[in-house]
């Protein structure tokens, strides 16, 4: 129960709802326990009249009528209280669930990119859905049933003892034995349902991946093997489900057995006491009704215990996650305005998850307003430079300066707000095209959106769609071609009017003619902005103020186009090769 202590702050927050809820639970159960008493009393009055102890028929009729009215009143009130009990305790559990989900969601927002690379999306989703649901079961149903169990067992048992100690002992004799059996069975049921749950998520994950990769599956014609894999998991899932149902099927027979044995004992022992004139017939019926009421709490003890155990395990996972400190911290809350000067001084960077040293002793200077092109073979470390400029990672060796200040000393939000980043694989939301562009500037006017699209040379494509800028994109923007996606993403960065523009190999999917037009437009747009262009093409780099060539994390060449084409090395080779390709 150590991990679940974390939830106490929510119990305190909603204490009044809970106190009212618990009081109502107690009242509703006390009322439920009145029923056997009233029924027993009524039968005893009838018996008294029959054997002549009471002779006044009118009095008997009056008493019976009063008891019937009382029974109806108790039933109505107990029903009303049960309704209120759900309205208070279960509603509180939903409120706590909402708060906890919000807390987790805010933590998701704070955590750094590295965290998302290290954790699987499925696990992260589970934390906020499955784990929180399990904790909610503790906060709501477990609290409610625990109160039910305590009140029913304590008050019910006390009432029975007060009537007849001997009969109570005999009646409750099978309870411990069978409750152990039910408890064990509940554990088995919970274990098996966890396995069923596991297979269910395996099936969901399998289908999710299959749907996402549908084009690969279809183009490779591997539907049959996919179906075979699916069948295997589905078969296992079915098997586990049947296994669970076998255990489930035993639950109610066990309960009925418990009720049956206790009833037989009451009839047998009570019958003998009745013959010996020790008790009245109403008392036997009263005891039988108590048995029915008390069986349920005994049966659910196991269920509630495992509910609490599961909630504890889930809360432990949630706590571990909430305790994670974001790797990238904001050390400055004061507003930061960037001029755009970027300097790398002897930066060496190693990704701690793979231990790959992506940058080795990298130094360069980009003056505010300059355009810097970064070229190099795949895996040379180009994107890593960009990720460091956006402070998606912090470097431990060397320093990165922005306008002469260490990057870590700037306000993190302001830094990122003043960077317009077009990633290699642009992500578009399942929203309209205009909303996807507006993502860069929420209050952008229609004219601004159109201008940004024109600058990114995607306007003509957009107006060709029947719904123009209102065209809604499918999941991951599937209705657009690769090049169109890249250009919408460029429009999104341009509209932001940032101080630093970053294009991470984002012109790879457009033809050279369109690339030329975009670059011409960018010249106009990127005035007074420091621009970084990562590319594999000379055409994207040739007009840059500075060109940096990376190889295996090291800068091997640096200079302007004219300088580099006259120096033997990677850039000249690439230039000659691409020139040859163009001529051919
Ligand atoms: N998030 C990451 N975690 C661990 N290693 C990474 C990560 N990102 C990149 N790397 C590794 O760092 C090295 C440099 O990668 P980077 O993406 O910077 O290269 P790149 O020059 O941009 O390549 P490309 O042209 O293919 O995009 C590679 O060896 C890569 O495997």
UniProtKB/TrEMBL annotation:
Asked if the Swiss-Prot or TrEMBL record annotates the protein with the keyword Electron transport, the reply is: no
List, alphabetically, the PROSITE patterns matched: ABC_TM1F, ABC_TRANSPORTER_1, ABC_TRANSPORTER_2
Q: Which CDD domains match?
A: ABC_6TM_TmrB_like
Q: Which GO terms describe its molecular function?
A: ABC-type oligopeptide transporter activity; ATP binding; ATP hydrolysis activity
Q: Where is the ABC transporter domain?
A: 342-577
- Transmembrane residues, as ranges? 64-85, 142-161, 167-185, 247-269, 289-308
Q: Which parts form a coiled-coil structure per UniProt?
A: none
Compartments where found: Cell membrane
GO cellular component terms?
A: plasma membrane
Show the Gene3D superfamilies listed in the entry.
ABC transporter type 1, transmembrane domain (1.20.1560.10), P-loop containing nucleotide triphosphate hydrolases (3.40.50.300)
Q: Which Pfam families match?
A: ABC_membrane, ABC_tran
Q: Per the record's keyword annotation, is Zinc included, yes or no?
A: no
List keywords of the entry alphabetically.
Answer: ATP-binding, Cell membrane, Membrane, Nucleotide-binding, Transmembrane, Transmembrane helix, Transport
**Membrane topology qualifier:** Multi-pass membrane protein
Question: Which InterPro entries does the annotation name?
Answer: AAA+_ATPase, ABC1_TM_dom, ABC1_TM_sf, ABC_transporter-like_ATP-bd, ABC_transporter-like_CS, P-loop_NTPase, Type_1_exporter
Q: Where is the ABC transmembrane type-1 domain?
A: 19-310
The UniProt entry lists the main location of this chain as membrane
Return the protein name. ABC transporter, ATP-binding protein, MDR family
From which organism does this entry originate? Polaribacter irgensii 23-P
